[in-house]
Amino acid sequence: MTSSTFQDTVSQFVLSKEQVQKIVDGLTAELVEGLSTTDPKNITQQPSFITRLPTGKETGLYLAIDMGGTNLRTAAVHLLGDGQVGVTMEKHEITQELKTGTGEAMFDWIAECTSSLLKTVALDMGNAELQMGVTFSFAIQQTAINRGKVLAMGKGFDLSGVMGKDLKDLLEGGFTRKNLPVSVSAIINDTVGTLVSHAYVSPSTKIGVILATGTNAAYIERASEVSKYNGPACDQMILNTEWDAMGKAEYLPQTKYDKEIDAVSLVPGFQEFEKMVSGLYMGELVRLALVDLIEQNAIFESLGGKVPESLKSRLAFKTLFMSTIESDNSIEHTAVDRVFKTSFGIEGLSADDRSRVFELVHTIGKRSAMMTAAACVALLHKANGASVNLDNADEITTIGIDGSVFEKYPHFSHSMMESMIEILGQDRASRIRLELARDGGCIGAALVAMVAHSGGAV
Description:
By secondary structure, this protein is of the alpha/beta class. The chain has a domain of 213 residues: CATH 3.30.420.40. It has 16 helices and 13 strands. The strands form three sheets. Strands 1-11-10-9-12-13 form a six-stranded mixed beta sheet, sandwiched between helices. A five-stranded mixed beta sheet has the order 4-3-2-5-8, sandwiched between helices. α10 packs antiparallel against α11 and α12 crosses α14. The longest helix has 33 residues. The N and C termini lie far apart (62 Å).
């Protein structure tokens, strides 16, 4: 009974070839739908107003900030040409108090962090206005290269006085209150930044992906396909897909644990794809499954079906713990003991317990990799014939991927590639490169700020 209950739970996270193909087809359909929809509730396929990738020859000094789900990074970026950059960067944790406070408090804090950076680099340009590129890892409705209205934020943010406001005005309001001569000349999404910055060093890059606390992607689309774009005429456009907000019940293989995560989230029914694959939620899926298994006495039988208080708190089981457990491939899985003793005060696990925890963690991690691969294939299909040519044996397409899950989670890139081979076939998949892209937010923002400020059409 115990074994079958455990296997029944784990099997919910195992995806068949048919389920993966449904994800590819479903996401492809939503990518197409997002190109034309003007429904304000549909935040997908946002035009970035960036119409070309960098050449690698750009030069100059620009400020940048990168606001993500966990940290704010401020940077002075020296573009040196030949794909080379020099970066002075500071990182600041965004506290829960800031995340759920007022917009004014948040943007005053960002201005203080920017002031700290300027002191660090001793940057004194007299009365000259400093140009800044901004990477904003949340949905905005872009109206120009340096303007955009803030849409639903997610990732634990619930700021008052921000929704529907222009991000340039919010940021420059903070800078003005702190007497900083900083002008926002470009606003990009973190995935757009990843795409632009990785293309600076690797010109075959056509897709940028973020896989960290949250997930998102950007790619290059024919402008003629983007019927909702109302800006100046252009041939192509980098789109911020906001694939985190995609995913419909008819094709997403949601378990009861996925549905529970969605139900108790700040915005139920929003970002359902992200809630199945990203770093904020993977550990919570493990915790919910463990709680269920303990209550059924199908794991940790020494607890007698009683769930420890330490495991009852939402988000108590971090995705970092999954990485630690998956890093230990020994038969004994001693890392399981360490995690549960140190973080949850649970000791005396049996060999079966350790093996089962490892299997559960591995299966949930692999599902995330497979679903991310399926989403990448959907983008490759949509871009094929435009910026991507899957049928040209001599053409390599690089996907630049930034984020802690891709960088640090054991075997993640390997699982993604295996899944892409399964979906695309060996020939086509062999033309795809998955590459780690670091610091795309700051460097990408600086690159776009430079071109925008110099008057060139980005």
